[in-house]
Amino acid sequence: MYKLNGRNVVSIQLAGVDSKDAPEFCDAYIESAKWENTGENLNEEDLELINDDGDLINELACEQLQCQADSLNDLMNGR
Fold this sequence. Notes:
This protein has about 80 residues and is of the alpha+beta class.
């Protein structure tokens, strides 16, 4: 879970993830996210702060690609 200013951030949605960019994911960014305690969307300023965390972006992009690969593998194997 990611914290910003001591508050939990959830429902993080990435955009711009391209497997050709691995491992840098230079075009990936957080498009939207919500505060856990209120369910409200983060404003643009807060999103900019989170998007400055390159390690987080890379981690989330890798997770997203891994989930996509796992789903494709499951489909190919009839699961």
